[in-house]
Amino acid sequence: MDNQYNEILNKAINYRRDFHRYPETGWLEFRTTSIIAKELSRLGYEILLGKEIIDEKSVMGRPLETVIKENIIRAINERADEEILKKMDCLTGVVGILDTKNPGPTVAFRFDIDALELEEPEDENHKPYKYGFSSRHKGVMHACGHDGHAAMGLVFAEYLSKAKEELKGKVVLIFQPAEEGVRGAKAMVKKGVVDDVDYFFAMHIGFGSTKDIGLVAKSKGFFATKKLDVTFKGKSSHAAAYPHLGKNALLAASNAVINLHAIPPHSEGQTRINVGVLHAGTSRNIIPDKAIMQMEIRGENDNLVEYMKNCAERIIAGSSKMYETEYEIVEAGSAICADGSDELIPLLIEVGRELNLPDIRVDSNMNGSDDATYFIKRVQEKGGKAIYSQILCPITAPHHNNYFDFDEKALLYGVLINLKITKKLLK
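That's the Indole-3-acetyl-aspartic acid hydrolase sequence above. Prediction below.
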């Protein structure tokens, strides 16, 4: 590996490990956004923040104001730039624009930046703990590689700025908040962030674990999905003296959970459902008056998601009626189906070959969801081309597992792939 490659890799590792130490969940990425925005500004990028890039009416699953304020204070204590925080209007994410001032196409790259609600293990077999960069935020960790995506984006931005004189057109770097729970992209698309984009690229680290670094040119098979927050409201009462006066929200929710997981499969394609969270009750001798449930539904196409949603709503309503409770359903996130542009596959394969990657694949099924599909579909609707790729690399555990980690060498190739793509399209 030559000196420049070592330099790129070391810079990316330093950023990645810093982001890993200070993980932030969706719509709370205040420190992360501040650091990215400050660095992009230093590199000469035009910076867009807050309401400039987020349509507030389209924001889904936003935390309570009290939680937002607490996380802003924490970000300040962890070296976030207060002037940048003020410009964010309590909305995370940042867009950096490099305009060469020479006529040419506009190329956009998406990097997601949020973490997950998982407890990172204190185990010497887990590299982040062993080498001292594990999460300092209890119950939150990067377990999907977004720390790596943010790091790749920043180092890519630096080396791209050095090549500005060689290029024509514009480069738009989208550091997206709240990908987990598919909450952030829709609000950015509604604000018009990619309306003028000719080429759009998104990339994810780690899928298809291999012995070395590889590349999937096009990810396909994205599930459409909806994330639903359900609240059952009943009536509390003494569990022994007056059980007949209570309306048991926990029983209503539990009945719903069992039946939700029994929704029949559909002949038109694959579907998924998962109730991931259920909180209810205050004491063993009180009839629970409130139950909160967080769930998701997915389908191979948008019609299947509607089928699942209609079934879920019917089951929730029936369970609530059975136990004489009230209920409320709030859509806390969503993603649509989209198919990347096949015309960009040869470009990705050419780049992979130039980098001598040992494992290059034309396409691969995602079997999951990512709200980058909103960007992909919008760019295509406007006449542009868009694609979602994967960097294959060894991983220590599946994504969304608290022992997840990836081979950091993937960061180098993420930067190099994006640089080569840009130079080929904007030369």
